[in-house]
Amino acid sequence: MSSTFPALPLDEVELRPGRPPVLRAESTGDAPRWAAGHREALRAVVAEHGCVLVRGLELRDVAGAGAVFGRLSTELMAEREAFAPRRTYADGVYSSAQWPPNQPMCMHHEQSYTLEFPGLMLFACLAAPDQGGATGVADAATVLEELPTELTERFEREGWLLTRSYNDEIGSSLVEAFGTDERGAVESYCRANAIDFAWQPDGTLRTRQRRSAVLRHPVTGRRCWFNQVAFLNEWTLAPEVREYLVEVYGADGLPFNTRFGGGDPIGEDVVRLLNEVYETNTAREPWQTGDLMIVDNLRTAHSREPFEGPRDVLVAMADPVRPSDCSPTFEVTVR
């Protein structure tokens, strides 16, 4: 740690029920340098609590936020298999996913369906919304403990199945998800990442990928409910949105949906239960312009609540982790 900065008063991390841990920092006018000087201390807070909201850095622009992301991470990652478009500001620095502001993005673990997911998520609020829009967080081990044992045991046996249908109207396009729309390159990526694929007569692509729903944290060994079963399921969509998508694309052609790993549909009651347990365990704090949030992506799920007014939150995915290093409940076969 740089001797320029005093040690962070870790005992002054604010811990209040229903809120994420908050650490207040004195602005020095050089947030990247401050972040570099306190990198290990901040990562220690995240290791202890799963996340931390740093208030007072006065982050105001992409360059400053991106530099902070780089100082705090080991490696910034490029997004692959995106479920919604993002704007790319710089290598590894993105906008929030483009999602209707009046619709919530329920709890999930970023890229939990990939074979290399971010171990760390970084968020920087350049402009807070007028109302709502908090990035909620929930402890994945606690969520797992509070779900019915019969349900979690089934997911541990079977895993979960993500189905996707790519088009140019809803969700991510092929280019946004795979970096290319060249068929051979897309097929090679799918084979290398254990994704079953099928081209449709109209030229669109449908995919299926099976993943473990429960992983062990590679450092603490705690079992975590780690997936996007609820978030990407049709029953989490607003009823009018779901009805529209089913009418336009058909029940088997939804942009994304989830099933039990064996292929059985997941009922509306199960999705409702998952979201209720998440909500019971959600901690939230309204964004203030200039805030930074650091999240352990395996231990801590995150969400985005509906909002009004402009909201500008930058995102970085960092410190890649492979599910194979987290005691998956079954082995993924790469062809």
UniProtKB/TrEMBL annotation:
The keyword Oxidoreductase applies. Its cofactor is Fe(2+). SUPFAM superfamilies: Clavaminate synthase-like (SSF51197). Residues 21-316 form the TauD/TfdA-like domain. Pfam families: TauD. One of its GO terms (molecular function) is dioxygenase activity. Keywords: Antibiotic biosynthesis, Dioxygenase, Iron, Oxidoreductase. This is TauD/TfdA family dioxygenase.
